[in-house]
Amino acid sequence: MIDTTFLASLARFNLIVRKRVTSNYTGQRQSTAKGRGMLFKDHRIYAHGDDYRAIDWKVYARTDDLMIKQFEEEKNLVVHVIMDTSNSMHYKKKFDYAAMLGVGHAYLAMKRNDKFQFSTFGTGIDIFQPQRGMSQMMSMISYLNSCKPAGKTDFPAVARKYRHSLGSRGLVVIISDFLMPLEEIEEGLIYFSGHEVKLIQVLDEQEAYPTFEGDFKLKDSESGKMLRMFQSPVSRDLYLDRLAKHQDELRQMCGKLGMDFHTAHTGMPIFDAFYSVLG
């Protein structure tokens, strides 16, 4: 069962979006469309045919210039929470930890009265319609509590299918271990261009900082292949170097695409993970 007691500790956090949001929903976010709305943007010179009610008479009193107020409508942000539920997420507490990150982002969207859409992916993808409110939140938690990670990850195919659900610009949060070839990740991320995208890599603490030693067998959770190896300080350092290189290249790739990359592991308190992503 997913522990939701941590949600109360997220009160200090908010979803910050750098890119302007265009949407058909009325809400609390800024849209790029100008009109009679909630947020003042700037002034322009009055032209014949303009609505005189939009004249800023205070500016006229100071400057003798007739200036029109321009506004930006406020729009809802749609938050897309996309979670990896392939077999590799079944290792120890990875899935539960990833689910907490997903639920936490949905909670922050709900707190702002934004719509949120959650989806899970492995070889294919299950997509739920964007909704807002507590009922959507409870549906998400109930679904994740019954979800069993399985299958392989085909990230490019998943992203290609999901792009049809994106619609207007929004915030996309993708949660996975991202232990897949970089070219596959990049191929998939291209489909999210134009959106605010956050990648959150979730690893088990033993994947991030392995402590086991000696002779043992490893099983690939997605292919089922077995690998016999001996863990020594040298092989551990080699593994950590390769993991760090993979993460650095992922971070650089995301920077090139205008996206954010964050890492977390199951040994981190969940509040610290959110502080790293949102703080």
What does this structure look like?
The chain is an alpha/beta fold. It has two domains: 5-14 and 76-278, Rossmann fold, CATH 3.40.50; 30-74, no CATH class. It is 33% helix and 28% strand. The protein contains eight helices and ten strands. A six-stranded mixed beta sheet has the order 5-4-3-6-7-10, with helices on both faces. Strands 1-2 form a two-stranded antiparallel ribbon. A two-stranded antiparallel ribbon has the order 8-9. Strand 8 and strand 9 form a beta hairpin. The longest helix has 25 residues, at 233-257.
Describe, in short, the structure shown.
This protein is α/β, with parallel strands linked by helices and 279 residues long.
Considering the chains and any ligands shown, give keywords for the structure.
279 residues, alpha/beta, Rossmann fold, six-stranded mixed beta sheet, two-stranded antiparallel ribbon, 28% strand
H/E topology pattern: EHEEHEEHHEHEHEEHEH
The strand order across the widest sheet is: 5-4-3-6-7-10
Terminal-residue CA separation: 27 Å
- By CATH, the topology of the largest domain is Rossmann fold
The chain-level structural class is: alpha/beta
CATH homologous superfamily descriptor of the largest domain = von Willebrand factor, type A domain
Overall tally of structural domains: 2
Structural Rg: 23 Å
**Count of β-strands:** 10
Indicate the overall shape. elongated
**Helix-residue proportion:** 25-40%
